[in-house]
């Protein structure tokens, strides 16, 4: 029981009586038998003082809350950035050198690649700063401060409801933002946490000139690719390197040759000492989304209704891409990133459903709900009476609308590129409807210019086959009442053939010919005559007029109920420790290096070695090939100072509670030194977004020493190592 387990932490905190129980007096034997039961949680860095600090120190940390987060002097948080809106990265030198995952830099590496200059296959290492490659549109964001403004947000709302409540919240928000003191290049926003139970004012700074410095070949950075994805044991060197450039005052600026490497307030020293079971680990980054406090009925619906169909749709799309990618090296490059993106959550959902079943998530939540109900009755907390009946009722309606939206998103938006493009064109047409011809003409020029990259990676044949397969799945589920198909599969193949032969949208010159000229009505006439757009527009209208409104009618009510439930949990279990669900804001999570038992009679060790890379080696395979150079380094055991007992550590796992967005997050030791780079989770624990369970949920990290070994010994990019600060904390 998640909530009850935190009571244990409370006891622990009390026993520790704050900072008296210091690290030096500790061993790795916890005072309470099963310390694993107490971990989990993604904490707001400005809220670590107290219980978190104590728990961290029990786990071996020597850091104070203010070492991690401080707004009055440099702290570790000043080395952490959100990487291009999705992943995390960290600064590892005084010249703005950034470390993130290979899969986070993948799009950038790919965009600089061609069949002749294939950085995806061969890797890329800038020999000096002048050779670092700019990436248009790429940004990284530092967090300057995160302040709890919940009380200010709720001021004066006590007796308000509905629109009046919303209006007061807007007024309060405006007052908070108006009062912010910040530099002119900084941004301020008030963000909602815990379904609107808490609010934080976040001040941030966005740097816009980010250049590619280095990436290993995919055979290292993506070793094991989709077969190994979400799995342990793992052997991947999933890292890439960038550099932040700033103007001469060290402030954000768009790309310019005159920009200079950014000087950080703090950068992370890198430990050469490695890890062993029980070592403290801290992961600092930007987790995207968790839903730890859903009721059991929602979890049941995910397992039985929502996940299975999403999985089936993606499977169909992946099968088509896979077939073409195996036949044609050009398509392999064009579709590598798209394939990985679609495969990633396809596989995650499978593991997630299995894990939710295996960890008895529904039964555990039902037990919690029974306790909740009992206490509500005992204490006469009438506002919370009947909350689960309300959930049941709303979720029974939600199932259908959520599924309809999933089908639309997966089929139309995510997997058929021409339909996704039509959707974007539909939005463009709305610019004409809403803002007039002049604005439309400017917008369309920008939009079409931005499509060059899309067409570079587009293959109409692949897309046509995906269209035929996925539309069949769509119409099987939601038959078109205006058309009867005696043979749906054949009808969709014919339809696909017709559209992809006759639409101009399948090529760059084609779409340019539709959008040429300055006459909005002529352009729109041409667009309306395009067969892909005709069907794409119909689907877009259906989304906005039907699917989305139906969905939000229920979803909005669920949000209100969920907000009440979370408040209820805090009220009903007041001694429990509680963290707000991830929402792409900066968080700290911590744990220990630890193996696990995936099933009865099997135990996984927490560290993997280069030996495992060689064991998995399949010559010429697109997932498991190993270059001659890496084989030679392995054979000669030429690991420099990065190896350990003549072995080269590669990956390790721990109990840190992470999610999507934590990729590229630094893993720090007890001193705040970098020991690894987070990139994934284990299969049995991917359900951690709904039901973190410390016995089985593990995050997967690249050992920092493997990264250094690849940079130094494999790539010969010693100049990058020289920029870093390498330390030996255990030998100090
Ligand atoms: N599963 C990891 C995450 O969710 C890594 C994904 C990248 N790798 C891949 N094979 N798709 O992002
Ligand atoms: N691989 C994920 C990411 O890219 C991390 C995870 O989901 O564990 O953020």
In percent terms, what proportion of residues is strand? 5-15%
Assembly state of the chains shown: single chain
Please compute the radius of gyration using only Cα atoms: 26 Å
Q: What's the CATH topology name of the largest domain?
A: Thrombin, subunit H
Helix content: 40-55%
Structural class: alpha+beta
What ligands are attached or bound here? arginine, aspartic acid
Observed structural traits:
732 residues; disordered N terminus; Thrombin, subunit H; eleven-stranded antiparallel β-sheet; single chain; 2 domains; binds arginine; binds aspartic acid; alpha+beta
List the helices and strands and how they pair.
Layout: H1 2-16, H2 51-58, H3 65-68, E1 80-83, E2 87-91, E3 97-100, H4 102-111, H5 119-122, E4 124-125, E5 133-134, E6 140-148, H6 150-154, H7 162-178, E7 186-193, E8 198-207, E9 209-215, H8 218-221, H9 225-228, E10 240-246, E11 260-261, E12 270-271, E13 280-285, H10 296-327, H11 329-358, H12 361-379, H13 387-415, H14 417-435, H15 437-449, H16 452-456, H17 460-477, H18 488-502, H19 508-514, H20 520-528, H21 531-572, E14 587-592, E15 607-609, H22 610-616, H23 628-635, E16 649-654, E17 666-668, E18 674-681, H24 688-691, E19 699-703, H25 704-714, H26 718-723, E20 726-727
The structure holds arginine and aspartic acid (ASP).
Aspartic acid (ASP) binds at residues 87, 658-663, 679-681.
Word description of this protein:
The chain is of the alpha+beta class and about 725 residues long. It folds into two domains: about 375 residues, Thrombin, subunit H; about 270 residues, no CATH class. It has 26 helices and 20 strands. Strands 1, 2, 3, 4, 5, 6, 7, 8, 9, 10 and 11 form an eleven-stranded antiparallel sheet that branches. Strands 14-13-17-18-19-16-15 form a seven-stranded antiparallel sheet. Strands 12-20 form a two-stranded parallel ribbon. The longest helix is centred in the last third of the chain and has 42 residues. The protein starts with a helix and ends in a 5-residue tail after the last strand. Aspartic acid binds next to strand 18.
